[in-house]
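Hi R.,

Quick one: here's the Heterogeneous nuclear ribonucleoprotein A1 sequence you asked about.
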Amino acid sequence: MVKAEENGNGAAGDFEPEQFRKMFIGGLTSSTTDEALKDYYSQWGEIVDCVVMRDPATKRSRGFGFVSYSKQSEVDAAMANRPHIIDGKTVDPKRAVPRDQSQKSEANMSSKRLYVSGVREEHTEDMFKDHFSKYGNVLKVEIIADKSTGKPRGFAFISFDDYDAVDKCVLIKSHMVHNYRCDVKKALSKEEMAKIQQQERERMDRGARSRGPPPVGRGSGWGPGRGGFGGNGNWGGSGPG
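And here's the predicted structure, written out as tokens:
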């Protein structure tokens, strides 16, 4: 693990919340080291924490790692400069998913569409476009209306040109649009939801057959991810939607 030097108060400095500064890097080669990961991502900003996750027993790379920057704008810069190639291989960078969100079925899937709930009659497509354009290039806004009354059914879809815009939006649980709270999540197709359900069934079957609790990561309180962040376990299974 590579960390930034601490300041005089014993802390690495005053930073924005970690959920906005942290990246998940999937698809790493088995030989990629913490230092190689840090060297590569340092071109877009100050790295305060960097680790390639390894099996606790064998110490072999698990094929993914985490990079924490000092500012969210540095994550934005890194994501704006994809593709990323490390040790000769194109890797899969994403914004890390906090543990409380990683348990949701859609958390580890990539999608270019955003589902928005809490839509009111006062809302217009332009209001949503103005708000969500802060996160990326909005291609289309669809406020879903009742066919008989023409009134909003309470939800809408926002289409972006990049899955990263959706990932940025869902890191913020609620958005205030024209003075009304709207909640957001990734919009997935029926096929994608069926795939998630199949993966969940397979995971439950494996758990039922295993003996004892599943192995954990490094140290107390560490799950398959890192420092309260999920492991983005399906990173290899889905491209941008």
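The radius of gyration is 20 Å.

Cheers,
M.
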